[in-house]
Amino acid sequence: MERSIFASLSPLDHRYYATFPELFAELAKYFSEDAMIRYELRVEAALTRGLSKRGICPVTAAEEVSRACAEITPEEVYAEEEKTKHNIRALVNCIQRRVSAAAKPFVHFTATSVDIMDTANALRFMEANRDLVLPMTACLLRILIKLAKENKDTVQVGRTHGQHAVPITFGFAMAQYVSRLGGRWEAMAKTGANLRGKLAGAVGAYNAASLFVDDPVAFEEEVLAELDIKPSPISTQIVQAEFLADYIHSVISAFGVLANLADDLRHLQRSEIAEVSEAFGEHQVGSSTMPHKRNPWNFENVKSMWKEFMPRMTTLYLDQISEHQRDLTNSASGRFVPEIVIGYLASVQRLINVLSRLRVDQEQLRRNLEISKEMVIAEPLYLLLANAGHPNAHEAVRRLTLLSQETGRTLRELLPEQQELQPYLERFTPEQRRVLEQPETYTGLAARKTVAICAEWEAKIGPGEAS
Amino acid sequence: MERSIFASLSPLDHRYYATFPELFAELAKYFSEDAMIRYELRVEAALTRGLSKRGICPVTAAEEVSRACAEITPEEVYAEEEKTKHNIRALVNCIQRRVSAAAKPFVHFTATSVDIMDTANALRFMEANRDLVLPMTACLLRILIKLAKENKDTVQVGRTHGQHAVPITFGFAMAQYVSRLGGRWEAMAKTGANLRGKLAGAVGAYNAASLFVDDPVAFEEEVLAELDIKPSPISTQIVQAEFLADYIHSVISAFGVLANLADDLRHLQRSEIAEVSEAFGEHQVGSSTMPHKRNPWNFENVKSMWKEFMPRMTTLYLDQISEHQRDLTNSASGRFVPEIVIGYLASVQRLINVLSRLRVDQEQLRRNLEISKEMVIAEPLYLLLANAGHPNAHEAVRRLTLLSQETGRTLRELLPEQQELQPYLERFTPEQRRVLEQPETYTGLAARKTVAICAEWEAKIGPGEAS
Amino acid sequence: MERSIFASLSPLDHRYYATFPELFAELAKYFSEDAMIRYELRVEAALTRGLSKRGICPVTAAEEVSRACAEITPEEVYAEEEKTKHNIRALVNCIQRRVSAAAKPFVHFTATSVDIMDTANALRFMEANRDLVLPMTACLLRILIKLAKENKDTVQVGRTHGQHAVPITFGFAMAQYVSRLGGRWEAMAKTGANLRGKLAGAVGAYNAASLFVDDPVAFEEEVLAELDIKPSPISTQIVQAEFLADYIHSVISAFGVLANLADDLRHLQRSEIAEVSEAFGEHQVGSSTMPHKRNPWNFENVKSMWKEFMPRMTTLYLDQISEHQRDLTNSASGRFVPEIVIGYLASVQRLINVLSRLRVDQEQLRRNLEISKEMVIAEPLYLLLANAGHPNAHEAVRRLTLLSQETGRTLRELLPEQQELQPYLERFTPEQRRVLEQPETYTGLAARKTVAICAEWEAKIGPGEAS
Amino acid sequence: MERSIFASLSPLDHRYYATFPELFAELAKYFSEDAMIRYELRVEAALTRGLSKRGICPVTAAEEVSRACAEITPEEVYAEEEKTKHNIRALVNCIQRRVSAAAKPFVHFTATSVDIMDTANALRFMEANRDLVLPMTACLLRILIKLAKENKDTVQVGRTHGQHAVPITFGFAMAQYVSRLGGRWEAMAKTGANLRGKLAGAVGAYNAASLFVDDPVAFEEEVLAELDIKPSPISTQIVQAEFLADYIHSVISAFGVLANLADDLRHLQRSEIAEVSEAFGEHQVGSSTMPHKRNPWNFENVKSMWKEFMPRMTTLYLDQISEHQRDLTNSASGRFVPEIVIGYLASVQRLINVLSRLRVDQEQLRRNLEISKEMVIAEPLYLLLANAGHPNAHEAVRRLTLLSQETGRTLRELLPEQQELQPYLERFTPEQRRVLEQPETYTGLAARKTVAICAEWEAKIGPGEAS
């Protein structure tokens, strides 16, 4: 069944497919229906190979099955499912049709459908994580590290509650995301590699396998080891739901870090702030009616994708519940889980594109700090007064800031007139005085910490190729 | 861009598309990317027609634009968007390319992109609701009504907490869903018809339009009236988010009713209960390894789809927040909203199919009631005793039920031996005694209420054609 | 059991109770455990009165029961529940203990526990809605209306994507919230008044009542009418879940409007924007370490409360599912639903407080518009050129804006040099030219629309007393 | 402020507090407002001790502060906050009031409010996890292990889709929960111990501390080490949100395991299944109107609590977003996070109580298996036929099951008549035949796996005291 992508219903199959054609072609190798069937065929082939190694079926049977599995198409399976109304029975029928009578009995032998499906499903997430999620996240990390290092000394006013606080550097602000996204990269690496398959039969007790092998637990491990995956510690008909829930939590919480980053950067693009901007193409249109607009639409898109996919974690939690040895109420919902990973990667790709060309406006950064530069010293002033022995320094400085606001004169201008403070001020060291005179140097460890965090993550994720 | 549906990433574009090909072909008329572009073209055409009616542009211009809008393909628009990076500017360019120099200026004239997009979006939901959501829901209602009426007298044990309580009828149980789904049908009718468009310009204040017409509010109403839609009471760049949120709440809460129905019916199919069953095809396979299984997989699918789509209401609530005159963070997420309606309709269709052929096992219903028939009289007994003046009837009967459980004798057998109760028992009327002797008649108004509810909803939804 | 509020576990019972002591004392009249028991007693009393009107029990019995219901304390009921492990049985025992032997049988007669509880629950939401939710929302609306009207002509730059777009007025921005919150006020009025009770017995089929009255449906209506509430159209053991779900949707979507308003206002307080500010108390501290800070903490609090309560809608959807004639899995979760209303009202109260004293900085509004005033004319310029017959006006102006950015000269300065545009410019009317010369007048219908919206909602919500 | 618990608004502060008084008294030591203030005081004391160790302030100052911190009451702090409108400034003022002029400056010295609050918050979760969450979960695990071991050989029919499948043992079914909850216990241990504090100042760059110490990063580690907690790798004003999100994910996913267990056990209590039951107290009432009912209300309560708390994970994801160096929009929502842990523990406690006294009805288990015992052999029969060389065994057996259903004769009765199958049947070994003759022995590794899983988790969680 061929059709135009514009006839698709999901934005993942039209708009975002058209936006990132290469990425989505890659994703289809893991997450299309076609791919799912191929993964299932890989598991069926591994099973029969495992049986032949145990001498339960002839080696030639295993070879025939492997060959058949390499040839079958999804169309064929779907046509068969029309009749059976059962997707794995359809798959098995398709394999059996292509092998000799001697091999037929050993197709799917001792397995239940879910042995195949759950294992295939875990495998595709595991491999997509290894091949796409981790490398692409690492690529974004490298871009963030570059941005952080380049701007480790670029002074920026720190903002809490949207209010100017004390200075940091723009690199330091980016280093936050290096560290947080790095932490999520580690979490995804761990939970992705810990996904599990199963080959424990219809109710998880190896009822069928135990008719033919003495140690079905070992047999399960052998077959799954061929596919580089470990079994669920104990299963009902299905793999324990928590392994996938942990993985998706790691992906969704990584998505949350992207959303925070995107929010920060789009606010820094506000007309009044204008510290960064997305590079715009020559023909690119900002608004259909306001030709002068330059909107932070890529960052807005990332935030918006997060709003679409984040709430879906609830589905994973709902799917933890499966009655007795399993009900099927996690089946349809489970088919949509890959979309979460796809949404995440579409956003990673977008950020890779836009952050590689992010413009940082040094002049505007300086100008914004200027607005409250004179107020910034309130914090060091109060601390230095306290350290010099003033018993109520915070209150004294708070009053001084009010006076400053009323009079329009700076704290520095007002200081010499405050008789009460003079004894303490005299105790300040020259270096301490310097901070009061040059508030823009009051950035603490911003640069040092930026360097340390970047070095830590460069070591952890390794050099990587350019993406 | 053509490709196999099995290369699609969303289950809506492969598995469920393949399951319900006719329904999904219908859905594509409203919710594919192709359809969205056609809706937008309809709005652009209406706008220019509106301008010509006001004499702002020549009638021929409006005609040219309408003709152009009928011809443009999504491929063309996407190719243009490659350059502009702006979907509506691309659309406008495509229209302008097809019209005369005299008409060009009046394409999209005074409108902002979102005027077109928000109106188009509201329209497609409104029309899909009118053409698919309401009729299909009504069709399901008719099937439920039939089931309820046919079984209005089919006695079934009522179950609270999964425990046998007092009897109802199976029709009465179905009438609950007639009423609840009927209520949702009304809610969807109301909220779907109340979706809103806009034509208020870039920040909602009719800045542009007010340069050319005296009464832009009236002009907005005129143009939207052509499309049979009302304007948002006041807009920023976007329509107020609450109209769509209300509609989707009505859809998701309707979905919840389906999920409850599906849960009930799959539990009634439990091996130990077995009061109903899905009809199975001759070649249909229940399990790849347990050939005797007949699973309630359609009901499980409905529950599972609900688990996928219900949590997405959160996205609608998140999209209520748009900063100042709008940010774009509702854009990507907004593209996925139709999927909720699609998921709902796939489940409605599935229930139509399976409930048309539901098997109700009268014998098994009778047998299950038999299990606790003798206990059922505990309730009427206690009430009749109380009514006859027993000061502590509930406690007296509670003790009697314990005695019954200990001795294995029925309440009826034990009754004559309870000296203390005799004076009250003697006061019972013959009719009251009958309930104690024939507990299966203790169904209250089950049948009458079933009839009343069915009649109410038959009247409300009308006769309809068979689906 | 007395204890310090600081020993409480929920912030609603310590921090926010301490913040809004009067409001929370009011809320406790509807939503404390004490209140719930009092509501249940009201329903029990109404039931026995209903029985006496039908002649099923003596009038004196109804009087005794009413008296008992007025006296019982929650402590008493809880002590009894220790024994019965059943809250309504405990309640009934407490009533029976206080009435004569003749009245005892008619306490709770024909009712099931949930008849009492579901009716009581609906009643408390309905009355809290009528007495607190609607009036307080109306009070907030009045403050917003005042703000909107006072600032209907206060020009503010419109912002889309955080970027300066074209001008509106601050009053117009506030009028959006008048309209949206007004719409929610209407929705809450409607759904709150539509909550339902029931008196249909253990499985909803009036099994018990039908032993004693001919028309139990009419009897249910009579008793509920005494309490000013309508019955569920048909019930299982419980009222249809959709009535409460609709009400809570209306509350949560109203909360979303508050969250959007709060977000807007805290962004307008950003140091670089500074168009509005919360009034600060004389002794109030902005930061424990940065004495100069003035944080938008009240708006932040509203946003944060919304983040806590909005996701709880999911619980309402989960509670739509109750197996067969009911399971109890909506019981504990149902007890938490009032918290959503409480969270909403705490936020309404906070906004009432802070918006009554909001400072709007006219000078800063003017200064911000100044930043992009010269760019604002891009939109009217392109439209006027188009209207004057320019075939490609949008593109022409887009290029001009790029030139302006490169050269640092304004559009107005560049215009006379654009030979190509002169023929079109000459066709502009004087009034059209005025907009180009005074971009701050390019506010469209902002003021008119503000007035219209405010008038509409003043009429709908009525005058009200000052809160 | 004293008041009756029944005047509380949150069910956690009335109903569930009254249900589990001892547990809730324990919880209050970590999660009441009182406790939060005590935790903050502990952090302030540790900070000043750290300063004294570095010689920044006199040892006596640290001693004075520690003493003051031990004495202050929440009432005092709240009274002060009335004035300051800032909770930590209020706390600091209260401490300063109790210390000498020499010590005053070193209260809260170099810290920002959030240094104290975020560290205190992490500490209370970390300690509650160590002292309550892990031990109570382990206690529940021990009860599940006991139940699993005692019933390792108790044959139960396996159920998939609510349909009888092939047999397992009840112990094996419980072992699933041992393994899954065990896995969550490990996850909570890991994420709970990994919560983080901070002491990095107002914007995370150690601006203040760097005025007084050369190595503020090391100083932060020192002070936090006193409290047995590690710092956030890099902070803005707040600790990275992911540490708490990971912890709460582990708690909520553990809650999901409880919900699944509760669902399974309540379904096993259905009247028609009746394999297990909650023990009932002598005076306990099942229903106010149906005296014979014995409802699975404890399991229903657990499911219901999960429905309340599970959706709140969304709040944690929302709180990942904090603009720039922090906004305050995670503050109010953050205060409610402990409720998730409280809800989880209330459910653990309930399950501990009810599972300690769970009744397993051996006779009923046997009877239920009997229903489909004869169908159970379909699976081994098909596999043995396949193994014996039958090329189409699944289809052959599927047809046989249809024949069995039509004729009402068992598979075993029909087998001898199937000519086509005889050659294969003759190849079966005696042991293989035994399974067909005694389907109840077809339990695979159920018992062995149960023993292995129990041993694994007994070793991991250790012996523990009875709870």
Shape of chain A: elongated
Oligomeric grouping of the chains: homotetramer
Q: Of all protein chain pairs, which has the greatest interface, and how many residues does each chain bring to it?
A: B-C, 100 and 99 residues
The secondary structure category of chain A is mainly alpha
End-to-end separation of chain A in angstroms reads 34 Å
Mean pLDDT across all residues of chain A, rounded?
A: 94
Count up the helices of chain A: 20
Q: Which ranges of chain A are low-confidence, i.e. pLDDT below 50, for 5 or more consecutive residues?
A: none
- Major beta sheet summary of chain A: 2 strands, antiparallel
Strand content of chain A: 5-15%
Number of domain modules of chain A: 3
Number of strands of chain A: 7
Question: How does CATH name the architecture of the largest domain in chain A?
Answer: Up-down Bundle
Query: Strand order, biggest sheet of chain A?
Result: 2-3
H-E order of chain A: EHHHHHHHEEHEHEHEHHHEHHHHHHH
Gyration radius from CA atoms of chain A, angstroms: 30 Å
The residue fraction in helices of chain A comes out at 55-70%
CATH fold-level assignment of the largest domain in chain A:
Fumarase C, Chain A, domain 2
CATH class of the largest domain in chain A: Mainly Alpha
